[in-house]
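Form 12-C: Joint structure prediction
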Amino acid sequence: MANTQSVCTSFLAEVMQGYHQFGQPSLTSRTSLTSPTNDTFKLALFFSSATLNASTTAYSSTNEVTNTSGSGYTAGGYTLTNANTPASTNTSTTAGTGYWTPSASASWTSLTVGTAFNCALMYNSTQGNRAVAVYTFADQTITAGTFTLTMPTNAAATALLRLATT
Amino acid sequence: MLVNTTYGEMDENLLEKKEGGFEDDNEKTTWVEYWLDNELVHRSAHVTLKAPLEAVGEIQEF
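Section 2 - Result
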């Protein structure tokens, strides 16, 4: 039983199907040809006993973090700020990287979680809670405190989510 | 400074403060704890993910 950091495999097909709208919409697509909207992406925390990995296809509350006391964590997780438009850059004539990072960090305040957690699932709550990626970190517990996940720099080599050709 | 604890807000001067952290290829993490008479009354953590996930695209030649 362990969580494993990975891009979710189902996400790869869903990108080609056009399920996920990261960033501010710049083209007409999907449900409306005149007023496109961007999707809502969330980050949910999971106990270390969960088994999220590349085969995770959608958010589920199974083994999701729950409050030991108080109400610092809400089921479903933190709504990420989806203001950054995905970008891309070429690294050669045959390779390049497309990338995206949420435009703000995720933070839970007044949180008490006494059971160890070590995983965050990013998923698209607008599109059937489809999974995007699983991120892992060292076991944490929080007592009447704040848990913050700071996003990396939104650049080709460091962005939170990258699609690359080599 | 007031610290949010399991007993409500308390003056930092009444508490024992412990700080720590670690860094590897995947993350940089810092944490702070406040203890009152050997009881943990506050713990916060700050995780910065360092290793971005990458999905590699490939094409097949005709």
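Section 3 - Comments
Residues 108 and 147 of chain A are 5 Å apart (CA to CA). The helical segments of chain A are 9-17.
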